[in-house]
Amino acid sequence: MIYGDKTTGVIVQGATGNQGAFHISLMNDYARSVGGRGVVAGVTPGKGGQSVHGVPVYDSVREAAENHDFATSVLFVPGFAAGDSIMEAASAGLELVVAITEGIPVHDTMKALAFAKMEGCCVIGPNCPGTLSPGELKLGIMPPQLAMRGHVGVISRSGTLTYEVVNELTRAGIGQSTIVGIGGDPVIGQTFIDVLERFEQDPETKAVVLIGEVGGNLEEEGAAATSLPIVGYVAGISAPPEKRMGHAGAIIEGGEGDAGSKIARLRSMDVPVAGKPSDIPALVRELL
Amino acid sequence: MKLLEFEAKDIFKKHGIPVPEGMVIKSPDELYLHMDEFADEVVVKSQVDVGGRGKAGGIIVAKKADVVATAAHLFKTPIKGLMAKTLLVEEKLPIDHEYYVSITIDRATRQPMILFAGTGGVDIEETARTNPAALRRATFSPLLTEVPGYLIRHLLGSAPRELGPVINALYHAFCASDALLAEINPLVTTSRGVYAADAKLIVDDNALKRQGITVNRDLTPREREAEANGFSYVELDGTIGVIGNGAGLTMSTLDLITQYHGSPANFLDVGGGAGRERVMKAVRLVGGMPGVQVIIVNLLGGITRCDEVARGIIEAGVNQHVITRLAGTNEEEGKAILAKYGYQMLDTMEEVVRAAVGEASA
């Protein structure tokens, strides 16, 4: 529970779009099943006064804040407007924004993250599935039926690959404390190092699975900075250089960020690295 | 998307960076109209998007009398496999010294990063390895609209102060064009001032629309078709077609194929909400690639409707065998639909990959 629990009140920005409306319904189904507060309000400029699955919609975050108590937003606003929405949430005093949106121009992301930091607002994503603390809180689009409550934290740049790993862990009887999809863009708010810091402070978390991919070196940076036992997995050993592999940030550039050298650097820090997702549970069990 | 040198120079010029006098031609004949504008020597530059263009023979200094023949030669000569559609013909600068400057986005600090080196015209990765001390770097808040003076002084060190305004102008160009990279290599000093002798700009694919770019030239025609359908797609050269949902899972599927000694033909991420129509289009696209012997469909997600996906696969009607792993709702129904048409649905990624590799090598 590193980003909230049952008592967390949530708003959805971009509440009236297909994705926003659909996931308000799923997040609130989950909140009901665990006895949490869930999504208390939605925001879409120009759509104030409507309601989505029983959740009232407001024109702005400030207007929603005058009527409800919340400090967390999940954002489904389209790419061209999402940077602005992150800033709106931050300036309204929110503590956490989970930006699901894919396709935000990276200059917008950079500016929005710098602004949010000044306002003391933490951002997960963009281009991410969000976070799930099984039995407590679902912020975003992760399918909760694959997860099981326990003591292993999961951090990943991917969406479905995270589900694959969570599924393997659950099938092996290894529960998860919090699962965090940090996003597939080159510039993201919470990176491995930030999430690991939170896991270190979390009494529920005893070990962490770190799921990386080609591009950048934030996996190694995170692994080097933590005292928690971790198991790594890096996707993209077969990725060709200079090609974007689905994620804007998944690219081997200027001979850097390839999976082979990431794996080698993790292993040189004595981090066990799984060859395939199904090998992860056995490696985690050795650490617990 | 990568811009060509002349396109990048146009943008740099608009932001006040001096560039050499020059013209863009599509055929050598165009030069006859401009002969009286040339000095005794000119530089003829092939407009192809490859690194190390000079060494590969794509840049030639020609005497005025030879410029048409030189242009004709460059139009016929592939540079690292690419043919130029246009050439840039420029004045030859009286160069005193060459420098390097670039602006990129630093993932670790989430900020713009400027790199400056007192030696230009060479491979910057080479400089980083052989002479790291020659490379100065600075990151700063993306909320600033100008590069702070103290950072410019830090970057320049003992280099001429007249380079400072160029660095600031490059930052303006970097922001205005939604660039992932803006680079001048070399940035040169001459007796008559500073010039960007070369220019490189890579525009963020997520910002192409607001930059007024309608066609992403970096993609192959099939990759472009995939993009129009909302897929992420990369062509490889193997025999096993791969369709997955989510970039990480799809990459991981490719990796597993490689680990089991098979060779993936492509990477295709169908994206979220994979339904009947999208899956049908994806299977047809991959089935239409030459050399694909078998296709893997690996979809995982709480809300994927397996029966719908199965119908999409059947409707695609490709010649290759399709082996699937579908996890979601209505799994049994999906399995029954696929089985009726002789397609396999297996439970795990590994089973699917092993079956596909077995078939492709049979």
Side-by-side strand order of the widest sheet of chain A: 3-4-2-1-5-6-7
* Global mean pLDDT of chain A: 96
What shape does the CA trace of chain B take? elongated
| Major β-sheet annotation of chain B | 6 strands, antiparallel
Shape of chain A: globular
Helix-strand string of chain A: EHEEEHEHEHEEEEHEHEHEHH
Which consecutive residue ranges of chain B, at least 5 long each, have pLDDT under 50?
Answer: none
Rg on CA atoms of chain A, Å: 18 Å
The CATH class designation of the largest domain in chain A is Alpha Beta
Helix content of chain A: 25-40%
Characterise the protein shown here.
The complex is a heterodimer of chains A (288) and B (362). With 288 residues, chain A is α/β, with parallel strands linked by helices. Chain A folds into two domains: 9-124, NAD(P)-binding Rossmann-like Domain (Rossmann fold), CATH 3.40.50; 143-287, Rossmann fold. Chain A has nine helices and 13 strands. Chain A has helices at residues 18-34, 61-67, 79-91, 106-118, 160-171, 192-200, 218-225, 259-268, 280-287; strands at 9-13, 38-43, 51-52, 55-58, 72-75, 96-99, 122-124, 130-133, 137-140, 149-156, 176-181, 207-213, 230-235. In chain A, the strands form two sheets. Chain A has a seven-stranded mixed beta sheet, sandwiched between helices. By secondary structure, chain B is an alpha+beta fold. Chain B is built from eleven helices and 16 strands. Chain B has helices spanning 5-14, 67-76, 124-130, 149-156, 164-176, 221-228, 247-259, 276-287, 306-316, 331-340, 349-361, and strands at 22-25, 41-46, 59-63, 87-91, 95-106, 111-117, 135-139, 179-190, 193-196, 200-203, 232-235, 240-244, 266-269, 294-305, 321-329, 344-345. In chain B, helix 9 (306-316) links the parallel strand 14 (294-305) and strand 15 (321-329). The radius of gyration of chain B is 26 Å and the shape is elongated.
Fill in the keyword field for this structure.
heterodimer; A: 288 residues; alpha/beta; Rossmann fold; six-stranded mixed β-sheet; 9 helices; 13 strands; globular; B: 362 residues; alpha+beta; six-stranded antiparallel β-sheet
